[in-house]
Fold:
Amino acid sequence: MKNNKSELSKSVPRVRQIIDALSNKDQDKLKKLNVSNEETEEILKSIDKKIENLDSGILEYINNVEKEINYTFVNEYKDYLLKHPSLKPEKNILGLLNGTEKLVRYFYSIDPNSKTYILKFQSFDSELKDKLIPFAELEFGDTLCFERETNKIGIYNHEADTFDIIADDWNTFIKELYDDSVYKTKNGFEYKYKGLKVIITADEVKEELTNYADEIIEYYFKNKDRVINHLFEKFEKDEWYVKTHTKDEIIEKIGKPTIYVSKVNCGELTYLNNKLDDHLITIELYGLELSYISIDG
Structure:
């Protein structure tokens, strides 16, 4: 086995071995390769040059597309294309306000040689076609589009011939994408389901905890009006927000809740992204019963 490994190592070009070592910050390997500072600098300059040439080519493709459709893409979208050459986003699930999820199959390519070249999808049978710029394919034939006039992002439903805005800008849209992974963070175990963040504040993720969190999410989407009315009873009683905002403004600015679960039948709906002010608004849950509301911060 040792001889095979040695032969394999010799067959790999030296430059590639150095690049691998630099990428992995493997100082021991760099020492074994006896890499000088001058050699490292030369390799890094070569890489920078290749990246510069690649970026230049991508920007040329983008400029050509913009000229063809008479539309200027937002800079954030262009930056994304430069940094993410893959057409399939790593996080490809989109949670909608009604509690449903959409799968993003792929982004359209700006490479004219690609089968999914973006210009191939700009002409479609709809009165909305002159108002929209399709840039990604969703499952079941729907598309993600920029609204030409506002740069907002929405979903074009090809069967209903409708367009529904889902994000005011590119950065907001990208942040809304997620996958089905569970992440260990300083707050606990986090994942997303139907567009809502779930935080399990326990030592480990157990099925009964995730099942309870999912029940809370199902309850929230089926009973949004009840949740909002429960909040408004508190706001009106303590005169929070109601003097300076309409009910619709409060609903819009309070955002989506994060689901906290510490144990079965003990959870919270916490509005972490409250744009009304800097306060955290939390509804305690016992089972699926809405309980005490706290406003902290």
